[in-house]
Design brief:
Radius of gyration of chain B: 27 Å
Strand content of chain B: 25-35%
Strand order of the largest sheet of chain A: 4-5-8-6-7
CATH class of one domain in chain B: Alpha Beta
Structural class of chain B: alpha+beta
Oligomer: heterotrimer
Order of helices and strands of chain A: EHEHEEEHHHHHHHEEEEEEEHHH
Structural class of chain A: alpha+beta
Distance between the termini of chain A: 45 Å
Largest sheet of chain A: 5 strands, antiparallel
Number of helices of chain B: 19
Shape of chain B: globular
Radius of gyration of chain A: 20 Å
Chain lengths: 338, 792, 173
């Protein structure tokens, strides 16, 4: 049986306690909420923290506050199942509800949290393997080694951002509140990520993600499409989140975000800009989809082939846009559209 | 159901220690030395062993392939080969100790494909075989194929590739060994074949077989993956001998991928001649199997890629050449359908193409060429009953094939998601006609013992691996004895208690154990009738047993309750315990290799798959699967349907996503997440139709259901994909990526196909040339060993 | 006040309620619920197929919700109600789901069955008569290699029907 390595467990009851524990144990400590990402990684010895700071007992981390009109505040400890089923989110921020509802399996969504999914470790099929497997191949730079096995000449790690909710949230213009020893700060969620498989979070070690803030809905529509082999369990090997504000058929504002094709959620800015001020016609959609596929640069370290993931980027962007514009069949992968 | 079933990993014995194996991290390497000093020094470690501590014995499930060691001594041949084992007070300590064992490796070149192994004869994975890195090469010819092709109106040559896949039982293999102070060894294990494990443990551990007891624990999924003796079982036994404690060993999921013995990757070339009407004039198949690092059942697997196809359709002449190649990967073996899904895929896809070229309805074409009942095939196999024509009719009817298929539609306008239907058929054995080791003894034995309480104990060596064999066998005894199912108590798979059954493989248990059970029950009933007849003063032949009583139907008031009948019988005969034995009819073709393929009878299946293909993403969505299966007689329709549905499911996995693939010498996806097994969401509604042919060889007319229904699924899906979007994916799995590649190829004016482009340069040996037995009538008299009284 | 801290390899005193029975346990904090159920409480009805959250075999209910016991820490479950397959039958009577699974042959090797039963039980507690596709979705986190799911879906439908009839009959009384 795969078992966890031993650790010290700190059951924090308040944010202050958690922050203090992080400060005290420094690099030896890690945070755990749902445990659905961390525990498997620990069993494979990808992480061997001496101290785990448990966030489950912190009441202020759970729950959704506010309204779509004024903006929502989602506690980082809210489970993915709760996010996916939340009526206000389903109605007004469908990209997020869809993304949360497509994470792994029903059981895992009952356990995993939104904060956990936003911070989910980057993945790579040279890295998400047992200690023995990684030792057999000679380890990689993300853990215990010094080369990148997917791009051996590369000075950086190419592990893949594998969050479903992150691209959806970035497309919705979400912000994130962080609380640490030095106080708290709120930054756009897009600023939480680096394009680096190892240092993928722009978060200090002592900081805790406490809330995700969604802006007032203000006429934005959104959609999320996920590519993966099976309808359950699988991480995204491509996620496409599109949000747009339309007046009639004319796009006033838009964001297109690609997940699982880089070490961070990748904004397709040129593609989004090409939409603004234009009518959402099939021709425009085709052109924008082509532009959006530009920044999609998957490598051969997930399920499916990387050329295939790149090809589907174009298809999914077009489908998401068609769905937002009410232009007919959006394909099977669109689960919910506002 | 209630959580009470005790699988091997649920067993706990007092003072039980826990063991782990250290496995090779090299695909191919010489072992220069193993230093266990640091591991031994770890507190909590009870014993550490290497191959040097075991008798120097090589073993293997087949007598012709004795090429395995429990713990490798000289070299390792794959990542995952075991080299040392630790027993400790708990599993964590054992695991930690394994990491403290230092092995000095001398890496050797790793050969990871058929092509590499054939290209590097200077690197030898094994020293034996039919050539450098060639485990087995076979060639059989029945009649003149070249003349048959010359006669044909259409001759097709196609190449196919079938990727390997693994069983993925949800239960990870586990075993508990206890070498008692009396010098006797007991092993409880999740095994499908306690008898073979028993025989081999005695050999490997160098102990008298009389002092070894193997108990098969309930198996949490087998599918052929628990049919060999394994390193972990052997190590646990030896560690128990050393420590004087019971020792448990439970594999991790990753280790289960290394144990493997799954579907062989097979490269195939198939040449078939057709008449204008769709009749086959002759067929020639070449197969190259990627065997992995050891022999396992591979010699049988190699034959199976060639010998079963002629059972379904009329093939007057037939030629088969096959070779199994060693590679530095986990050994392949007998996964559900053993060696036959691959050539079935090739044949059924080729038939579809031929039907299109000939302008024929693929269902009608197949219907025309099904084999005749009670005849022989070109390669001397005996077809008894066949319900294939009815299976085709029923599945065509139920699926609405005629409306959905609409003829070969060329040049239709593309739309994003296109719908298609595909049809394919198959045949499969109901138990192998010969045992794994040559002997004249029964393949299945049963002892029935009646109790004065009216209960009947059924002792049989078979393992219930989820197929429900315990309940089928109990129902046979209950039927013959006229008692309730609940009154029969099955004691399965315990080598000191139960007569030998060869194991739960090859779809043999219902038929073979069933026939033995019926024989034992008839003997028991005969003894009871004799005693009751005396008391009632009637002739024994006037009696019937039903509803828990024994009596004369016309005078049922005087009928004796079964318990009382047992007492009368026991008073007359002494203890009422009767054996039943079964061995298949001896019908092996009289040529070298004729022992693989014969079976008492064959099951038949036809399936129609309805699906959509998304032309933009290449994704396939299955809508419905209709499947009609000739099961001879459906004794327990729910269990039969369950076997059919499960087979369809496993076929869907193989067709669409499952693949055991390697990269840089390592298994690429050794986890439940990365090895893709379909969930409820990818599994469509399965519509099962049971066809009955009442076969004289089967118990109450029954044939197998656990493997055959897997076979048509992959080609039916491939044919439906072609019907939907006009591209041929000549390999499995059929992935979205391959579909897009084929569509792109078509756009660029190239053949709309993805599949193997070249074949290995390989000289098969001269074929054994035998006259075709095609069309000859089945032997008039069936000689079934041990069953003479039933003929009388 | 300091947060409660448990040192590595040090055992934690944990109070767990399993199948409505309270247990006082002294276990290392890094042992998962799966391990504690099987190895410390002898409740081996909870099976395991990967221990990484990738198969659903080890599913148990925590406060009525299906969770993966291989990824849950007992130290985080104090005060919660844990249900395992051993807690499904009431007295000597099989739960209607167990009954339907037995009647329809929805269990073959039986190894995934405990997890499937518990997931289905949670679904039926939330929705009386879920449509087939809803059952499919709810069971999408439980892999089965034997059945092709067909008989499982049939059995859940049958149990749902019986349970809702029973509930209606009960309400009418």
């Amino acid at each position: 049986m795969m078992r966890l390595p031993p650790f010290t467990y700190v059951a924090a009851r308040t944010l202050a306690e958690a922050a203090a524990a992080l400060a005290e144990h420094g690099a030896d400590a890690m945070l755990v909420a749902g445990g659905t990402d961390l525990y498997p990684n620990m069993k494979r010895r990808q992480f061997e923290p001496k101290v785990l700071v448990g966030l489950r007992g912190i009441r202020e981390l759970a729950g959704v506050r506010g309204s779509a009109r004024e903006g929502l505040t989602l506690g980082a400890g809210t489970t993915l199942a709760a996010v996916a089923a939340h009526r206000e989110i389903v109605t007004h921020y469908p990209a997020l509800a869809t993304a949360a509802g497509l994470v792994s399996s029903p059981q895992l969504r009952n356990m995993g949290t939104l904060g956990g999914n936003v911070c989910v470790d980057t993945r790579c099929n040279y890295y998400n393997q047992s200690f023995e497997w990684r030792r057999a191949i000679g380890f990689c730079m993300k853990k215990d080694g010094d080369v990148c096995l997917v791009a051996p000449g590369s000075p950086r790690c190419w592990a893949v951002s594998s969050s479903d909710t992150a691209p959806a949230l970035v497309s919705l213009g979400a912000a994130v509140r962080l609380v640490g020893g030095g106080g708290e700060r709120t930054v756009p969620l897009a600023a939480l990520y680096h394009d680096d498989g190892i240092e993928y979070l722009a978060k200090r070690r002592d900081e805790i993600v406490t809330d995700i803030l969604l802006p007032p809905v203000d006429g934005w529509r959104s959609a999320y499409l996920k590519l993966r082999r099976r309808g359950s369990f699988d991480f995204p090997v491509l996620g496409v989140a599109v949000a747009a504000r339309l007046e009639g058929a004319v796009v006033r504002d838009a964001r297109i975000v690609l997940g699982a094709v880089a070490s961070r959620p990748r904004l397709a800015e040129k593609a989004a800009a090409a939409l603004v001020g234009r009518r959402l016609t099939p021709e425009l959609i085709a052109a924008v989809a082509e532009l959006a596929a530009g920044p999609s640069k998957p490598l051969d370290n997930t399920d499916f082939t990387h050329p295939y993931r790149k090809k589907v980027t174009r298809v999914f962007v077009a489908r998401a846009l068609r769905a937002l514009g009410g232009l007919g069949d959006a394909g099977r992968a669109v689960e919910a559209i506002a | 159901m209630t959580g009470e079933t005790r699988y091997a990993d649920d067993l706990v014995l007092p003072r039980m220690a826990h063991a782990k194996l250290l496995r090779s991290s090299h695909a191919h390497a010489r072992i220069r030395g193993i230093d266990t000093t640091r591991a031994r020094a770890l507190p909590g470690v009870l014993a550490v062993i290497t191959g040097a501590d075991l008798p120097r014995v090589r073993f293997g499930i087949l007598p012709v392939s004795q090429d395995e060691e429990a713990l490798c001594t000289e070299k390792v041949r794959m990542v995952g080969d075991a080299v040392a084992a630790v027993a400790a007070v708990d599993e964590e300590t054992a695991e930690q100790a394994c990491r403290l064992i230092d092995v000095a490796w001398e890496p050797l070149p790793a050969l990871m494909s058929i092509e590499e192994s054939l290209a590097h004869p200077e690197v030898r994975i094994h020293e034996y075989g039919d050539g450098p890195n060639v485990h087995k090469s076979v060639a059989l010819q029945f009649g003149d194929v070249e003349a048959a092709f010359a006669r044909a109106d259409l001759v097709r040559e196609d190449t196919f590739y079938y990727e390997g896949s693994t069983h993925l039982p949800l239960e990870q293999h586990a075993a508990v060994a206890h070498w008692g102070p009396d010098g006797k060894l007991t092993l409880w294990s999740s095994t499908q074949t306690p008898h073979y494990v028993h025989r081999l443990l005695a050999k490997i551990l160098d102990v008298p077989a009389a002092h070894v007891r193997v108990v098969a624990a309930p198996v949490g999924g087998g599918f052929g993956g628990k049919l060999d003796p394994f390193a972990h079982e052997i190590a646990a036994c030896h560690l128990s001998r050393l420590t004087g404690r019971p020792v448990k060993i439970a594999l991790t999921r990753e280790e289960v991928f290394y144990v493997h013995r799954g579907r062989h990757p097979v490269l195939m070339w198939l040449k078939t001649g057709f008449t204008r009407q769709g009749d086959i004039t002759g067929c020639h198949i070449k197969t190259w199997l990627d065997g992995g690092a050891y022999g396992s059942y591979g010699v049988a697997s190699t034959f199976y890629t060639g010998v079963i196809n002629p059972v379904s359709y009329k093939m007057p002449v037939y030629k088969f050449e096959g070779a199994r190649i060693f590679t530095n990967k986990p050994p392949c073996g007998p996964k559900r359908g053993h060696g036959t899904p691959q050539p079935r895929f090739a044949l059924e896809v080729q038939l579809d193409r031929a039907a299109e070229q000939l302008g024929l309805d693929p269902a009608a074409m197949r219907r025309r060429i099904v084999t005749e009942p009670f005849t022989k095939t070109a390669n001397h196999l005996t077809v008894t009953t066949t319900g294939l024509a009815e299976c085709i009719d029923r599945v065509v009817e139920a699926s609405g094939w005629r409306t959905k298929w609409r003829g070969w539609r060329a040049g239709e306008a593309p739309s994003e998601k296109k719908r298609g239907v595909g049809l394919a058929c198959s045949a499969y054995m109901t138990g192998a006609g010969t045992a794994i080791y040559w002997n004249a003894m029964p393949h299945s034995g049963v002892v029935l013992r009646a109790d004065r309480s009216g209960a009947v104990a059924l002792l049989c060596g078979a393992t219930d691996i989820g197929q429900g064999s315990d309940s089928i066998l109990a129902s046979f005894a209950a039927e013959v004895l006229g008692i309730a199912l609940k009154d029969v108590h099955v004691h399965p798979a315990d080598t000191t208690l139960t007569p030998v059954d060869l194991g739960s493989y090859s779809s043999r248990v219902t038929l073979m154990c069933g026939m033995a059970t019926i024989q034992a029950a008839e003997r028991l009933r005969g003894a009871i009738f004799e005693a009751v007849a005396k008391k009632l003063e009637v002739a024994p032949g006037a009696l019937v047993a039903r509803g828990g009583r024994v009596g004369v139907p016309e005078d049922w008031d005087t009928a004796v309750p079964f318990a009382q009948a047992v007492e009368l019988g026991e008073a007359m005969h002494g203890v009422l315990a009767f054996p039943g034995s079964y061995a298949p009819p001896r019908r092996a073709g009289k040529y070298k290799g004729g022992g693989v393929g014969p079976s008492p009878c064959y099951s038949y299946t036809a399936s129609v798959v309805d699906l959509s293909v998304d032309e933009e993403t290449g994704e396939i969505e299955l809508h419905d699967v209709w499947i009609a299966h000739d099961v001879g007689r459906a004794l327990n329709p729910l269990l039969v349907e369950g076997q059919v549905e499960g087979s369809v499911y496993m076929g869907i996995g193989e067709a669409l996503m499952e693949e055991q693939v390697f990269r840089k010498g390592l298994h690429k996806t050794p986890s439940m997440l990365d090895y893709k097994s379909p969930t409820t969401l990818e599994t469509p509604d399965i519509h099962t139709i049971l066809v009955e042919t009442d076969d004289p060889e089967g118990p109450f007319g029954a044939k197998e259901a656990g493997q055959g229904p897997l076979l048509p699924i992959m080609p039916a899906i491939a044919n439906a994909v072609y019907h939907a979007v006009g591209v041929r994916i000549d390999e499995v799995p059929i992935t979205p990526d391959k579909i897009l590649r084929a569509l792109e190829a078509r756009r660029r004016g190239k053949p709309a196909r993805v599949g193997p482009e070249k074949l290995p340069l390989f000289a098969f040996k001269e074929p054994v040339v035998v006259e075709s037995a095609f069309g000859q009538p089945a032997d008039a008299v069936v000689v079934r060993p041990f069953q003479a009284e039933r003929l009388a | 006040m300091n947060p409660q801290t448990v040192e590595p390899r040090m055992k934690a005193r944990i109070a767990l309620s399993v199948n409505d029975q309270p247990h006082e346990l002294l276990v290392p904090v890094h042992k998962t619920l799966l391990e504690v159920l099987r190895e410390d409480l002898g409740l081996t009805g909870t099976k395991h197929g990967c221990e990484l959250g990738e198969c659903g075999t080890c599913t148990v209910l925590v406060d009525g919700e299906p969770v993966l016991s291989c990824l849950a820490l007992p130290v985080e479950l104090e005060g919660r109600r844990i249900t395992t397959v051993e807690g499904l039958a009431e007295g000597g009577r099989l739960h209607p789901l167990q009954q339907a699974f037995a009647e329809l042959g929805a269990a073959q090797c039986g190894y995934c069955t405990p997890g499937v039963l518990l997931t289905a039980q949670a679904l039926l507690a939330a929705e009386a008569l879920p449509p087939r596709d809803r059952i499919r979705e709810a069971l999408a986190g439980n892999l089965c290699r034997c059945t092709g799911y067909t008989k499982i879906l049939d059995a859940v439908e049958l149990a749902a029907l019986r349970l809702s009839r029973g509930a209606r009959a009960g309400a009418g009384r």
